[in-house]
Amino acid sequence: MLEYDEEIEQRSNSLYGQGFAIGFAEGRLEVMFKILKDLTKKYTDNQIRGLEPAEGDDATLLKRWNNDVFCNYLDFYRKYENFSVKRLVKQYIAESEYLPWG
């Protein structure tokens, strides 16, 4: 019979938690980059950043997202805009110390 090992259980729980967190971050990033890909077809970077007024269906969304985090996503997207969304997500995670947890 196997003995209970608290250290092994803690490591297992930690790895499970990290795996869940990475999966959650990948999902959020994928949505964010899909939205950015669509927005960059309709609006200029300055309109997306809130530096110029935007008109259209997404204008309210752009006003809501006028913040530093969203602008950082835009900068990253522009750096690798020829990548697929999945590749953008992988690259962002590889380069980033900060992941979007919530």
From TrEMBL:
Domain of life: Bacteria
Record protein name field: Uncharacterized protein
Organism: Butyrivibrio fibrisolvens
